[in-house]
Design brief:
- This protein is an alpha+beta fold.
- It has 4 domains: 88 residues, Phosphorylase Kinase, domain 1 (2-Layer Sandwich); 98 residues, no CATH class; 72 residues, Phosphorylase Kinase, domain 1 (2-Layer Sandwich); 89 residues.
- 26% of the residues lie in helices and 23% in strands.
- The strands form 4 sheets. A 5-stranded antiparallel beta sheet has the order 1-2-3-5-4.
- Helix 7 packs parallel to helix 9 and helix 8 packs antiparallel against helix 9.
- The radius of gyration is 21 Å and the shape is globular.
- The N and C termini lie far apart (57 Å).
- 38% of the residues are buried.
Length: 382
Amino acid sequence: MADFLVDESKFLLINEEERGSFFNEGFILPDGMVIGAMLEDSENWQIYVSEDDDFHILAVKDSLAEKWFAAGFLTSSQMMAVENGGAKFFILMSPVALKLSHISGVHCKKSCRYALNLASAFQHTRMINSEVNLRDAIYTEQYSLLLPTYTQIPEIADRALYLNALRNEKQQAENLSDSEAMTGFVSLVWVKKVLREKQYAELNYENWLGIGDAAGDFLGQPSNCAQITGLLIASQHFQLFDTDTQKYLLIIDELWADALLQSSLVTHFTLTPLPIDGRKYYALPLSKKYAVETLNDRVHGLTERNTTLLARAIRTSRAQAPSADFTDALYLEEKRVVLPLSFCSEEHDDLLLLASVLREGPYALSPFMDDVNADLLEIVRH
């Protein structure tokens, strides 16, 4: 990969008004989705928000989409073909709670989980193509990919792009000048070192599964049809892995699984036994459409709907674990449950916990109005 920096101010940018939108606001897609405001644009792609604020919509010219299909980044079934104004486009839908943006707009904001999500996207992308230029890529959290846009801008090494996403929160300008980062891929070993140095987290636990390991058996697919692409959460009693499918893979150790079963928190779904190095673990596949995160490191963008689900999950889980500490608990939105690591806590305040979520975000689009916050807090209060 090329090991040099670029002064991008010397490149001619196309005027947005001259380029124009691929779709006017209010355009109705074949599935009934209505296109809203445009958020980002380039010559061959544009990102919109749906009129109902539920989805981000990536629209790309057919020439770019066909390159993705040919290279194996996406399949045609994952995108919707649409014609407008005599031109053909392909549409990718992504829930607004998940990140979808040009790589220059990715900013991890001291979230270890966000940083590991991005690392997994680099690793997954490089499993598909080890050489393509990612300087102008589009990051899609839904597919754990950096989709190349094949522009002529000179190449920047993956590690420099990754470190740029870890830049100080107050530093808005891009920083691609770290000379030590200019060689090598974004490997998990390197990522752990960087996150420790930048005081994101100490990821000292040994990985229970490796990058590239087969995961199909636990995702309802043939064994060799799914791979582990990244580690997203590393804890003493559980680890969350990314895959090259639309599912995460949660691995729980026997000790925590027994405690959860005794509390009745996991009796409404199935944990599949999984032996690893002679020890017993349990596996649970989870859809990437829903939040899977610890409540002290949240990345899933808040909407009124999914925050209502979180408030209800806190309330119902509290009824089953009355003395548990939820501050660092694992939240499974798909299962509507909060799984605590500690079941015996003298002090816990669910109202304060939800208030901190509402105060800190992250929000999918924008913070809620005060009356909405009050209604959400009322769910936990009762």
